[in-house]
Amino acid sequence: MSRSGYSRSPLVMPGAFVQLIEDIIGIVPNIVAFEYNPETITRSLEPWNPFEVDQTNRGVQAPTVQPYAPQEKFSFSLELNATDGMEAGNPVATATGVAAQIAALKKLTQPTAGLIGDLVASAQALAGSGTASLERPTVPVVLMILGPGIIYPVRLTTFSVELKEFSPQLYPIHATVQLEMAVLTPDVFKCRETAASGAAVATYNFTRAQEDALAILNIANTAQTVVGALPF
């Protein structure tokens, strides 16, 4: 049966974030599946402007120069609602509402030592026995999955959550999360090659290959129309 609850409705593939956390035992994915797919997705490209001139980049550039891939960004909002889970008797939804989903989304923006390592570090800090690390913290690779046609490595740049309803224990039952992401190109992973970065580059190239194929299909689909519009 489809996620809409109607047997004749088409099967809807939920979007998701997959954070590739490198732990002691290897890559441990932190998977955050969308309860409801976003109704609207904003996708923007910011090409390099060859006509912008500043003190560090003087001179007139060729108008067709594009030294790197345009910066691509996505933004959308996610609706979280624990009502269905509470009615179905889900123990997590009943006890904490959507707090667990919000916590999982929040971890996408934070440096981590692994899911277990973070729990141990938090316990040590709570006990006052934590030690400062000299290693520069980094955020694990996050894959944004919006169906089979869009699977990109991204960095979350904006995270904002609005809590609307609460349980008697003040756990949120309904929330709207606003997210903005910047797509990470293969160039950013050249400085440190790991299994996670390899997966990120592979998914980026996979999505780009699909888009190139779709562009070719569009040319074939519109070729007859274009030829018919030519005056010769």
Structural key phrases:
28% strand; alpha+beta; 232 residues; single chain; 5 helices; seven-stranded antiparallel beta sheet
Describe this protein's structure:
There is one protein chain. 29% of the residues lie in helices and 28% in strands. With 232 residues, it is α+β, with helices and mostly antiparallel strands. A seven-stranded antiparallel beta sheet has the order 2-1-5-6-7-4-3. The longest helix has 35 residues, at 195-229. The mean pLDDT is 83.
In short:
The chain is an alpha+beta fold.
Please specify the SSE layout and strand pairing:
Blueprint: E1 16-23, E2 26-33, E3 42-46, E4 71-81, H1 83-87, H2 91-96, H3 99-107, H4 115-127, E5 141-145, E6 151-166, E7 172-183, H5 195-229
Antiparallel strand pairs: 1-2, 1-5, 3-4, 4-7, 5-6, 6-7
Biggest sheet strand line-up: 2-1-5-6-7-4-3
Category from helices, strands and their pairing: alpha+beta
Give the helix level as a range of percent: 25-40%
Q: Averaging pLDDT over every residue, what do you get? A: 83
Shape: globular
Strand percent estimate: 25-35%
Tally of separate helices: 5
Taking the alpha carbons of the first and last residues, their distance comes to 54 Å
Largest sheet: 7 strands, antiparallel
Sketch the topology as an H/E string, one letter per element.
EEEEHHHHEEEH
Record field, number of beta strands = 7
Rounded to an integer in angstroms, the radius of gyration calculated over CA atoms is 22 Å
Model regions low in confidence, pLDDT < 50 over at least 5 residues: none
